[in-house]
């Protein structure tokens, strides 16, 4: 892939984190849109009990990239991520509500890890003990089930890494709530600027500018190389490319 050596910038990661959080909010609090009442932004309805819906098969091949929208604050710097393939999705009747939501939050952490590590699923997760900071900023050990080398990644901010780790906490009670994810990711998307990433050793905050991010998206997403489909996909006759005659 072109630019295969480039890391995914923090500001793009925050935007994708927020988008995945909204997708999970939609599973817990379906917006029930209609033609007369179109869906705008998935939000938490405090007065409604969340559904116990889990996807149960979320990985990088089950996410499609939607469009970029330069006029939308939440998708200025990163495309919409659309989870698909709900074949295993279930209302988890045995589970309590909290564990269904916490399970979905663990999935968010796993996808974020895939994006940070730029690894293609399936990758082996392991229990590892990492330090995350508590509300007072003190380092506390946390047992997480994640990529064994996520902790070595140096180009992402501590805030971002801590939140990704917490989503993958082995103890589900230590995972953040949807409310907290919405608050932290929304705040980062609304307010973070390239200069916030100046202090990261060995990393240039130039990669966090709008210009650098747009350039990366152009090269990696919009001008992407195409590869033949592999895996267990059904082979349906697809549309054939139009034959272009040199005379027309
Ligand atoms: C981010 O900005 C939007 C639009 O102004 C606002 O609705 C949202 O509440 C903000 N999010 C946070 C976490 O501040």
UniProtKB/TrEMBL annotation:
So which domain of life are we looking at?
A: Eukaryota
Organism field: Anthostomella pinea
Q: Which Gene3D superfamilies match?
A: Transferase(Phosphotransferase) domain 1
- Keyword Signal among record annotations: yes
Query: Which protein is depicted?
Result: Uu.00g121070.m01.CDS01
Signal sequence annotation? 1-28
Q: Which residue intervals make up region (Disordered)? A: 228-248
Which terms are listed as keywords in the entry?
Signal
């Amino acid at each position: 892939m072109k630019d295969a050596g480039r890391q995914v910038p923090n500001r793009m990661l925050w935007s994708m984190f927020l988008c995945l959080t909204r997708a999970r909010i939609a599973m817990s609090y379906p917006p029930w849109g209609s033609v007369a009442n179109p869906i705008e932004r998935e939000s938490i309805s405090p007065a409604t009990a969340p559904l116990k819906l889990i996807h149960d098969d979320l990985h990088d091949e089950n996410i499609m990239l939607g469009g970029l929208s330069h006029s939308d604050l939440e998708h200025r710097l990163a495309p919409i991520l659309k989870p698909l393939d709900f074949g295993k999705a279930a209302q988890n009747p045995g589970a309590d509500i909290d564990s269904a939501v916490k399970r979905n939050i663990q999935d968010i952490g796993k996808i974020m890890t895939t994006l940070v590590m730029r690894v293609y699923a399936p990758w082996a997760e392991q229990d590892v003990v990492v330090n995350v900071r508590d509300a007072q900023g003190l380092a506390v050990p946390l047992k997480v089930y994640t990529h064994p080398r996520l902790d070595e990644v140096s180009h992402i901010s501590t805030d971002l890494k801590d939140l990704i780790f917490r989503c993958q906490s082995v103890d589900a009670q230590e995972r953040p709530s949807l409310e907290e994810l919405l608050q932290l990711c929304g705040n980062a998307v609304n307010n973070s600027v390239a200069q916030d990433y100046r202090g990261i050793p060995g990393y240039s905050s130039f990669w966090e500018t709008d210009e650098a991010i747009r350039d990366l998206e152009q090269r990696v997403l919009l001008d992407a190389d195409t590869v033949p489909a592999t895996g267990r996909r059904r082979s349906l006759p697809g549309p054939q490319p139009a034959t272009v005659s040199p005379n027309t």
